[in-house]
Amino acid sequence: MKTINEYVEDITRSITQDYEGLWQVASFFRDRLKIQSDAEVKEKSFEVIRKLMARNIMPGNLAAKGGFTFWQGTPEELLARIDAEWPKTGIPRLSYTECWFALKKA
Questions:
Q1: What domains lie within the chain, and their CATH numbers?
Q2: Which segments of 18-101 does DSSP mark as H helices, in order?
Q3: Which of 43, 59, 88, 104 has the fewest C-beta atoms lying within 10 Å of its C-beta?
Q4: φ, ψ at 60 (rounded to 5°)
């Protein structure tokens, strides 16, 4: 069973080839680690998100015609936005309009 750090490493290696969706982060805990509590899935997901952001893998949206639009703000503001967009009735599901992550080049 993968640890959170191993999962973050996997994302870090693959992020140059593809984007990672918030729904995928949440699904890692729900589907692979079989965590049933929505609160625990959210808590663990935010742990991953903080680690990704420390590696400059930042949140944003997929652009309509391809590409990626990074959200603007401090790390605390970005985390607050993700928290506000987190579904009130469970965990995120596949959506192309919600939060995704991409490597933000310096």
A1: 4-103 (1.10.3510)
A2: 22-27, 38-54, 75-85
A3: 88
A4: 180, -160
Tell me which residue has tokens 């503001």.
Answer: 77
Angle at Cα 37 formed by Cα 33 and Cα 2, nearest 5°? 15
- Both structure tokens of 65: 């015609």
Q: Quickly state the pLDDT bin for 65 (edges 50, 70, 90).
A: confident
Tens of pLDDT, residues 76-90: 999 999 998 888 656
- Of 30, 28, 15, 14, which is closest to residue 60 (Cα–Cα)? 15
Residue 100 phi, psi dihedral angles, 5° rounding: -130, 170
